[in-house]
Every structure is written in structure tokens, then in C-alpha cells.
Write a structure and sequence with these properties.
This protein is an alpha/beta fold. The chain is built from ten helices and nine strands. Helix 3 packs antiparallel against helix 9. Strand 2, helix 1 and strand 3 form a beta-alpha-beta unit. The protein starts with a strand and ends in a 6-residue tail after the last helix.
Length: 234
């Protein structure tokens, strides 16, 4: 089995390719390797680009773990929340190339990233489907939805599990820009390169002021939230 994350530094951009050969499930291995990639980005790059595999950005948390019971579910969902809050507050620009389906934790990674590039040419599904699968949305998911989604779509997205195509996801707030399907990856890397030219100290300082209070609130209450969360099918 190959690593689900590959990192390269390309013209100052830490290009983080997510590819487990399947649905890009958010597993403990993927979480650990994205943390390592963010460490490397701070040392060797000025921006980060998350790149999905063809047809899949991420289908959400690893079902092989989520079906092992409440404790395993809570452990993975907690680790995922910690990673998402790190991405949300990462001091460098973060750009996501949404190359296909982005559901549940995959959609949350879109919300946590600064800039999100997709394509109306791709037959992708994007959204928070937790309610539809019988899972209570973690507090960090609700707070990311409040912070990044359009007010017009917030109830439909966070509470009612509405799933969007790429054009709908742009309107809802999961995406920022639509390009041709073949240009999604290159555009995301170029946007990251451009944003990386902004003064890094100012970008990180302002991002902390914009987002750190939300992250601190989420992380402070994360253990308590996991104790009360509703696992899938409960």
C-alpha cells in the first residue's frame, strides 16, 4: 500500500497530493501525513496546495474505522478535527484543487482551505452529508459551515445535508472559482504561488486574528464534543 499523501515543493509551493488509490478517505495515516506536510511547508515553502486524485477530492472519514464502534469513530473524528483546525489557521496561504467528490470531511477540508478551485465540467458531489447518514455533525463542522458558507445555504448545507454539484458549491461557499476540468490542478498551484508572494508575516498575523478564536473554541471543547457526538447509524 502506497502512502496516501505525496509532497513536493514546486516553485515555493508545498504541493500536497492526496491519493489513496480509492476515495481519498480521511484515515489516521492521511491525517498524520498531512500534518507532516504542513510542517515541511512552513520550513521550505511559502504556500500550500492540496490536490485531490482524479474524480475524488475526499469522500470523508475512513469507513473501515468508522464502523469499528463509537470509540474508534470518536478517535478518528477528533483527529480529523484537530487537523482541520490546523489547516484553517495555517499561517501560509492554502489552496484546494477540488478534483472531484468532496463529501463530509472532504467538504470540511474545502471549508478549512483559504481558496478552493473546482470545475463545472466535473460531475462531482460536494457537501456535508452527515445528517443523511445518521451522524451528528461535530461542532467543528458547524463552526466551519458558519464561517465559510453563504448564509442563504447554511441551514440547507449544515442541517439538511444538501449535496451540490460544482456550480451549486460555488454559490454555497464550498468553492471560490470554477475553471476547465483540465486546469483545476495547475490553477490551484498557480493561485497558491501567487498568494505565497504576499508578505508572509502579514498573512499569518491577519489569519490568526481572523480565525484563531474559532479554532481555540473548537479545540478547547473537542473532548467534550466527542463525548456527546452521534456516530453514524445511532
Amino acid at each position: 500500500m502506497t502512502d496516501p499523501v505525496q509532497l513536493t515543493i514546486e516553485d515555493g509551493v508545498a504541493v500536497v497530493r492526496l491519493d489513496d488509490g480509492k476515495a481519498n478517505a480521511v484515515s489516521h495515516a492521511l491525517i498524520d501525513q498531512v500534518h507532516a506536510a504542513l510542517d515541511a511547508a512552513q520550513a521550505d515553502a511559502t504556500a500550500v496546495a492540496f490536490i485531490g486524485r482524479e474524480g475524488k477530492f475526499s469522500a470523508g472519514f475512513d469507513l473501515s474505522v468508522m464502523t469499528q464502534g463509537a470509540d474508534a469513530t470518536r478517535g478518528l473524528v477528533k483527529a480529523g478535527g484537530e487537523l482541520l483546525m490546523r489547516v484553517y489557521t495555517h499561517p501560509q496561504p492554502t489552496v484546494a484543487a477540488v478534483t472531484g467528490h468532496a463529501l463530509a470531511a472532504g467538504a470540511l477540508l474545502c471549508l478549512a482551505s483559504d481558496t478552493r478551485i473546482g470545475s463545472a465540467d466535473l460531475p462531482a458531489k460536494i457537501g456535508l452529508n452527515e445528517t443523511a447518514i445518521g451522524m451528528g455533525l461535530p461542532w467543528y463542522g458547524i463552526r466551519l459551515g458558519e464561517a465559510r458558507l453563504s448564509v442563504r445555504h447554511r441551514q440547507r448545507s449544515v442541517l439538511q445535508a444538501e449535496i451540490y454539484d460544482m456550480a451549486g458549491a460555488l454559490d454555497a461557499g464550498y468553492l471560490d472559482e470554477l475553471v476547465a476540468a483540465e486546469a483545476v490542478v495547475d490553477t490551484a498551484i498557480e493561485r497558491a504561488r501567487q498568494l505565497g508572494q504576499l508578505p508572509g508575516h502579514a498573512y499569518g498575523f491577519t489569519k490568526r486574528r481572523l480565525r484563531q478564536a474559532l479554532a481555540d473554541e473548537v479545540l478547547l471543547g473537542l473532548d467534550a464534543d466527542m463525548e456527546t457526538m452521534v456516530p453514524p447509524g445511532s
